[in-house]
Amino acid sequence: MKRFKASIIGGSGYGAAELIRRILIHPEVELVRVSSIDYIGEPLSAVHPHLEGRTDLRFEKLEPEDAAAGCDVVLLGLPHKVAANVVPRLLEKTQAKIVDLSGDFRLRDLAAYEQYYGGKHPAPDLLKGAAVYGLPELNRDAIRSARLVASPGCFATTIILGLLPLAKAGLLEGAVETVGITGSSGSGITPTATTHHPVRAQNLRTYKPLSHQHMPEISETLTAAGAKSFGIHFVPVSAPLTRGIFSTSFARVDASVTPERLAEAYAAAFEGERFVRRPKKRLPEVAAVSGSNYAEVGFELGPVEEGHRTVACFSAIDNLIKGGAGQGIQSMNLVLGLDEGLTLEDPGGYP
Amino acid sequence: MKRFKASIIGGSGYGAAELIRRILIHPEVELVRVSSIDYIGEPLSAVHPHLEGRTDLRFEKLEPEDAAAGCDVVLLGLPHKVAANVVPRLLEKTQAKIVDLSGDFRLRDLAAYEQYYGGKHPAPDLLKGAAVYGLPELNRDAIRSARLVASPGCFATTIILGLLPLAKAGLLEGAVETVGITGSSGSGITPTATTHHPVRAQNLRTYKPLSHQHMPEISETLTAAGAKSFGIHFVPVSAPLTRGIFSTSFARVDASVTPERLAEAYAAAFEGERFVRRPKKRLPEVAAVSGSNYAEVGFELGPVEEGHRTVACFSAIDNLIKGGAGQGIQSMNLVLGLDEGLTLEDPGGYP
Amino acid sequence: MKRFKASIIGGSGYGAAELIRRILIHPEVELVRVSSIDYIGEPLSAVHPHLEGRTDLRFEKLEPEDAAAGCDVVLLGLPHKVAANVVPRLLEKTQAKIVDLSGDFRLRDLAAYEQYYGGKHPAPDLLKGAAVYGLPELNRDAIRSARLVASPGCFATTIILGLLPLAKAGLLEGAVETVGITGSSGSGITPTATTHHPVRAQNLRTYKPLSHQHMPEISETLTAAGAKSFGIHFVPVSAPLTRGIFSTSFARVDASVTPERLAEAYAAAFEGERFVRRPKKRLPEVAAVSGSNYAEVGFELGPVEEGHRTVACFSAIDNLIKGGAGQGIQSMNLVLGLDEGLTLEDPGGYP
Amino acid sequence: MKRFKASIIGGSGYGAAELIRRILIHPEVELVRVSSIDYIGEPLSAVHPHLEGRTDLRFEKLEPEDAAAGCDVVLLGLPHKVAANVVPRLLEKTQAKIVDLSGDFRLRDLAAYEQYYGGKHPAPDLLKGAAVYGLPELNRDAIRSARLVASPGCFATTIILGLLPLAKAGLLEGAVETVGITGSSGSGITPTATTHHPVRAQNLRTYKPLSHQHMPEISETLTAAGAKSFGIHFVPVSAPLTRGIFSTSFARVDASVTPERLAEAYAAAFEGERFVRRPKKRLPEVAAVSGSNYAEVGFELGPVEEGHRTVACFSAIDNLIKGGAGQGIQSMNLVLGLDEGLTLEDPGGYP
Fold it and tell me: Where is the active site (chains A, B, C, D) (predicted)?
């Protein structure tokens, strides 16, 4: 008999597939309900074939409060804007803890939200601190006591983890240039021209260069972590793999900064962190973390030039796990007072 | 404190990587030792990057009996021919149960072994029943009480599971034609011309057509399960994916056989089997089982022609899990008297 | 000044993209017009990005006879059923030669068309010999003098070329079992769930097993070439590559047939054929023909069993070139009295 | 009867495969000889399967001057360091024009060569202007009259073309940060751990960050084109595709620079260039140029920040064609006084 009950609102996407998988094998949390606006009455395996025979649950059309009924926690796999309409009702009409995978409550800056997500925010008052940004490496204690967790974006998680050591050490100041390369699962479950296999399988292209909606999320978070007058120029690139993000961020540090100093900053930033690795003999790579909740970080420091040095900060994650549902499960475990790593310790398959 | 101790002999390959991963997250079995002839003294993550920070174990150069010292079970990730030299020493000098992932003890027919694997068998006497063929769906009870388990081959597992219902129902007689399509991880960890990404990524080719070493393994097993005067014409094909095997076998059944009769045979053959799925609304596919220990089976029955009908039997697995180390873990759990599914219930990630 | 003028009806698909590419670099044929029901008024590069800056042509909405006006040849890149409505008007109202890439005029058996393509055929009378089946290796002379060429299907081309030597040598009799594995470009330009990169990139699955519409096309053609009481059990499989088809066909020949006899049959069947290769030291593979109009064929002969031997016939092509538009260009060259190989001699890039 | 004769020294690699393909279909140049230190006496198709049946040439072991005998041009597909030993002998003992695909003669700065390529240069005097850097968009006239052409590197070509408009317009000053993402064919024909399909197919990783040997080549070339106090921080990333490079370079321009001004600079830099495209309605992508000699360039201009704006410059090419052998053929055509585009006009297949 499991101690906690959970339900998922918006259960037909890839993020939800990963949430469902994790809860189905969770020792303490029972999945009691999955709501969706599509596939009503169909088994979960109709959309998630890997769940064939693993559960008798079917997609249900439910009001948010009905979806949450009797649950200790509700996880939202809804699109941006939709989540923002559901969360207020859950806060008002239920006692359930909420873990939201959407971008609707990650920002505190309403203007930034409206600029990058477009249109009005349905619940602007909630941006003023109602949610905790669900990055355990930065906000673990706050997450533990949070009612509402805004789980980080996939690019944002990757880029923030790569730069967090510099921010925490007071070494991150001014503009950063970042290229984040992502697999196709980040585009979601709906087929589009840019995820059509004949083209995607041999393509590299950018989209939303210098205007991706994760930019303000990254800036707010790193500034809160210690970055000064921080700004990011971010270019996302689509690559032909299914899972994984690799990011490269160029920052400028003082000429006096040595590799040893940077290594100390990385060690200090992630001391005791179970899911962030600093490989000793190699740089981060996607294949090492794909299929797991682990992130890998590393750096290369350039020569002294005009009083400063350029450091290239690297990070790699699985966009659907540490960059999405896995990190959401970390937050679910935390808000329920459970071991943060439940269902997430598996290093995943390789290759 | 875990109840059982295990060691791995031959720990540097992909099969061993999957064995190590499973035992590291196993609730009842502790990994105490990993031997190898390469990477002596290096951490496991030197070869298996996904294990970075997950274990302090290092590769050790050990005699078989030393590798097995104090262990309840030893798992072999050795190449063919090498395993055949290690197993006799383990049988003689230790009490440990043995799960061998190699092909050295799968056959009972010495002549077939020498024809398909080449050269002499180092321990021919052991072919006469010393090992139990580790397919739980066929030999579960025998595996439970076995000292030595010969874990099935990847193609063999796929093809056997697809035809097992016909064999058990007495519907499998005479020649079968099979095409098995495999991902590149089946070729192992050593780079070769046929796994070189620039070519493999856009290639389809056959190798060992009508002469693959899994043919006698398939024939012996299906004959033992009820097939009559069975013979297989097997064409393996390499495809550009990392994990997974999809097999199509053409068999001829009596004209009186109906789809309902075949559905009954499939249901009967796999009733209560946790890791074999018969999807109701679709045919088997690799993406649904990739990353998990599940197999999917299905069939399509052709029209009546000259007194018979042709049935196409389909099956899909992950070659490294159900087709390799995962199935080996199933046998390990069984020989230790544990729940067969420990560490294997995870449906895996999708996509 | 090029000697001939061509237009394309139905110019927005992958087949059309290959037709346009070839004609743009053709020394004797000028592309004067491309019609489409979509993208009217837009440059061809709006759909075919590789044509950026290569032509000023734009998609036009045109009646068939207007599309054909002043043209020596019209190439059809239309879907099945649509082509069948256009061809009669072109035959009636124009003098242009017609090369149709659709399946509408490949069959002579009306019942088979209605069974495999569904519904009624818009111009059933034309099935009675109005079209020449555009496989140069079988019908070269007839193509030269044809008014209407029905260009073969991608699977059909692959499978027929692999079995043609047996048919011509009188060695092909009775049932054949075939597995054809295809890349994703065969599914066309419209994104669907089965071509969605996150899933397709790691999937192997079958569709239309034992019921694919190319089956009657293969039977009619091989029977015309000499096969006796021929029948095919065909299982198509989708694989994660963009271009290429690899097919394996199992046939039974008399026990007296030797590898030498089969080699003679293959040599005789393709003597002087520029685009069909019989590699001496390896079996056919997709990577060797991908990006070119070449086909590769080969075989493996099994042991004597019960008075016969089983032969596995292999073939590989690029589905969009030899299996589609490239073969269509071969026919265009032939109907115009040109060198059959114009624009097709390029062996393509490797890897 | 073709007007010119060519031979290739170092014919067993991917670059050579592309050179051979082009010359085999070249209207004016005949391939008379291919030398190699491996595969002596074997047909070219033993290594290059797409050439099966296309030529009777075999690999020959030849002294450089013998390889060049009677040839108007010699193309070198040799590794770095090896080419540097062959070129002086060709210059001394033959009259043939030389197109070298290696990096041995691209730099003028001997110290940079020794730092980035390691060890001593075998012919340092030749670095002082003996070779013309084979980028037609920059050095067309010099190439026409060159005896020795040093064909550019793959990353260098991509990055230089993306930044050339800024350099020529006097807008490129100071440090640039670049991420270049490459397909696996750039690693060459020899299988390695980083091109092993099981891992490469789902990996993103960096190598030689901030220390890649193309950095001085890029700096020398862009400085010669007008860049001031230019420096590059370059991070190469490996991605799971076979062909293609996509590069993103971040440069800082004055706050007064507008998108229109940059568009003018791009238009001016590539006016009349047949192989450099500036798509109007999209940004550069690999799929549009893969399989062709075309490059695509584009940019995105950021907002005004502290007196400057950051511009992200994008470019995409096929690493083996415009980034390698195709560009080498452009130079071959130029040194022979032929139309630069012979055999290169094909827009390639899509997808």
Answer: 154
What is the distance in angstroms between the Cα of B283 and the nearest Cα belonging to chain A? 11
pLDDT at C1 over 90: no
Identify the segments of chain A with pLDDT beneath 50.
Answer: none
Name D84's Cβ contacts closer than 8 Å, sequence gap at least 6. D102, D104, D105, D121, D122, D123, D126
Residues from chain C contacting residue D287 (CB–CB below 8 Å): 49-50
All residues of chain B having their beta carbon less than 8 Å from the beta carbon of residue C175 are: 305, 310
Nearest to B47 by CA among B17, B77, B74: B17
Cβ(D33)–Cβ(D60) under 8 Å?
A: yes
| CB neighbours of residue B228 within 10 Å | 12
Contacting residues for B223 by C-beta, under 8 A, at least 6 apart = B167, B230
Q: In chain A, pLDDT over 90 holds for what percent of residues?
A: 98
What H or E segment, with its residue span, contains residue B326? helix B326-335
pLDDT tens string B234-281: 999 999 999 999 999 999 999 999 999 999 999 999 999 999 999 999
pLDDT at A1: 81
pLDDT exceeds 90 at position B189? yes
Provide the phi-psi class of B161: left if phi over 0, else alpha when psi is between -120 and 50, else beta.
alpha
> What tokens does D63 get?
């002294």
Interface of D with A in 215-244 (CB under 8 A): 231, 233, 235, 237, 239-244
Yes or no: say if A199 and C49 are a contact pair by the CB < 8 Å rule: no
pTM above 0.90, yes or no: yes
C-alpha separations of C236 from A284, C116, C156, C164, D31 in Å: 40, 15, 11, 19, 41
CA B202/CA C290 separation, integer angstroms: 8
Q: How far is CA C306 from CA C10, C254, C303, in A?
A: 52, 10, 10
Quick: pLDDT tens for A135-194. Answer: 999 999 999 999 999 999 999 999 999 999 999 999 999 999 999 999 999 999 999 999
Of the candidate CATH numbers 3.20.19.10, 3.30.70.3300, 3.40.1280.10, 3.30.360.10, the domain formed by C155-319 belongs to 3.30.360.10
Taking CB atoms and an 8 Å cutoff, what residues of chain D touch C317? Answer: none
Q: Where are the domains of chain B?
A: 4-130, 155-319
The domain defined by C4-130 carries CATH number 3.40.50.1110: no
For tokens 């450089």, what's the residue? D64
CA distance D211 to D229: 19
Closest chain B CA to residue A283: B49
Q: Which of residues 240-279 of C touch B (CB under 8 A)?
A: 240-246, 248, 250
CA–CA distance, D67 with C164 (Å, rounded to integer): 43
Residue with tokens 């590419």: C21
Interface test with C, best of B204, B296, B308 (most C CBs within 10 A): B204
The residue of chain B with its CA nearest to that of D188 is B198
Relative to beta strand C97-100, strand C148-150 is parallel
User: Which residue in B316, B225, B309, B297 sits closest to B259, CA to CA?
Assistant: B309
